Structures are given as C-alpha cells and as structure tokens.
C-alpha cells in the first residue's frame, strides 16, 4: 500500500504544471518572455521574490510525498489492521458466548467460524483500511488538481464525467455485485459445513461405508462455489472496465472535437496545449480509476458486514440473568437475615449436622423451585413444578425418558431460563451444570 508509481506520476504531473507557472514567472520560457513583466510578477506565489517563490514550489513538491510516507509508516507501526481484527473477533466471541440457548442451537458452527475469520478480515482489510487509503488518494487528487486546473480548465471535464458516470454506474451495479459476493460466501460456507459434518460424524461414515457419497457431496459443493466464483469474477471484470472505457471515450471525443481547434486547422489552440490536454485527460482518468477501484472494494464488504451485524444483534440471556440475579441477591439477603435471627433467638432450635456440628445460618437455606414451567416450541415439558432441596444432600431424578429430568437440571444450573415461575439458589452457592458432553 505504498506510494505507487502511478500515483507518484500524477503528483509529478500536477506539480509540473506549478513549476511551469514558476518558469513563466521567472522568464525562463518563451511564453513568459512575451508577457509584460508586471504579469510575470503577478504570478509569483511570494510577491516580489522569485527566489522565495522557487523555494515554496519546491516545498509544495516534497510535502505530499512526506505526508503520505508518514501516514503509511504510522499505519504500519500501529498495527491498526491487527488491532481492529482483534477487537471485532473478541467482541463476536464474547457475544456468541452469551447467546440464548435456543439461538445458539440454530447457528451453524461453519457460519460462525467463517464470520470470525473470513468476514471480519474482509471488513477490516477491504473496509476500514481501504477507507483510510481512499481518503489519502482523494486528498492527493485534490492537491494535484489545484495545479492542473490552474493551468488547464478543461481538466474539469474528465473529473466531472468520472464523478457523475461513476456514481450512476455504482448505484446501478452495487446490488448485483453485493448479491453475487454474498452468494459466493454462502457457497463457501456450505463447503465448510460439509467438512465440519465429516469430522464430527467420521465414525458413522466409516461404519456405513459412506466415503464415496461424502466425496461426491463435497465435489458438488465445490462445483457450486466455483460456478458462483466465476459469475462474481465476470461481474467484477465488467465493473473494472468502466474507468478505461470512460477515459478512452473522453480522450477520443476530445480528439474529434479538439483537433479542429488547433491553429494549424484554423482554430485558436496551440498544438502543445492540445497534447497537454490529452495528457491531462488520461492522467485524471488514471487517478479517478484508482479511486473507483477503492470504492468498489469498500462496497464489497457490505455482505460480510451484514453477517457480522446479524450475529452481533442476536438476543442474549444477559438481560434476563441480570434481572434474576438482582432478585436472587435481594431475596437471598432477606432469607439469610431471617435465618440468622431465628438461629440467634433459638425459636427454631439450633440446626446441626448428623455428626452434631452446628450449621451456619446460610447453610440452612434451601434451593427452591416454585411453579416452574418450561416448553420446547409448543411442547410443554415442565408445568407448575415446585420443590425445595436442602443443602448437603444427594438427590437423583428418576423417571421415564423425555419427561423433563435433564431440562430441570439445566434450569437449576442456569443453562435454561424458566418461562414461568421462580428458581431460588442461595447467593453463596454456585450451581454447576455438567452435561452429557462433559
């Protein structure tokens, strides 16, 4: 992303126009010699001093290069892209770990993996970083156009044409380009899904001898991805030809129009000015092409940005847990104080263990379920369950399959939140749910 040769050439061309102004002011060109000295003096940047004018023009020639070099060096030394990737990837991982259980079950592992790796990298590299580069290119073009337009007002023609036609073209082509890139990313995700499924179910594939079927299925996914990739390449290739076409048409049109304005053909334009205008048309076209390509790169991240935004806006359990934990702390404080007062007054007797040891007041509090209800979709699993569990005992839930035993344990462990009813766990206790996967 350094200072490319084409960008440098345009900058030199723009400053060259300024040096031409200085040369005429210093009387070093034939045109300057034909002008009155007052006019030459009036063109000096520093009035009354040719020497300081030369110094200023020289500094203006060096300044853009120093500025862009400093920006590129600072950007590389700060590791801005790496910092942005770390920020987005850590934020998405943090968000994923707080998804509600029903939301997490519907999200594909492959989709989340590609969002954290490919999509975030594209958003950083082709989005944020390209925006910084785009600002530099636009600033450099504006700086060069100050000199170019001062020398040749016709340079405004290609500049205006690129702005108008480029914006219209991007508005018309943007939906198709974004849809194509999103489809290509979706096909690539399908390939990743197959790989994840094969790794997770390898024993079944081996036992049932499904290797040929899996390979054929994977080849179909690759074929779909290649087809979509080819379609996207064709779209991007056609988009890339807009700047060359526009530059060619502008140069060709000026050749048709400007040729008859040359003095040799009875016009008022000198041959040097004619060729200089052609050169300006081409160089402005080259610089606008670079801006156009950078804008296209930024627009391509719309799909990945939508995916990341979709995952970042999924509902989490944090708000529900916050409310329940506040209620749990408040209720736990009330019951702890009540148990302590009862123990101190001796109204309820002194609680002891089987070995005769005195139990602390907080250890007499029970884990309680009160009218707990839960359902999976439209299928009720628990309805009005009320039970309390004393501390220091071992409990076993026994019953037929699919009657809510595992669901009840998950509710006690905080993995699932009941749709109705309350679950009270003393504040000093921490319930750990270890599922079958553990």
Automatic annotation (TrEMBL):
It holds the Pfam family ABC_membrane. It is found in: Membrane. The chain crosses the membrane at residues 51-71, 155-172. InterPro entries: ABC1_TM_dom, ABC1_TM_sf, P-loop_NTPase, Type_1_exporter. The keyword Membrane applies. One of its GO terms (molecular function) is ATP binding. It is a multi-pass membrane protein. GO terms for cellular component: membrane. Its main location: membrane. Residues 80-300 form the ABC transmembrane type-1 domain. Keywords: Membrane, Transmembrane, Transmembrane helix. This is ABC transmembrane type-1 domain-containing protein.
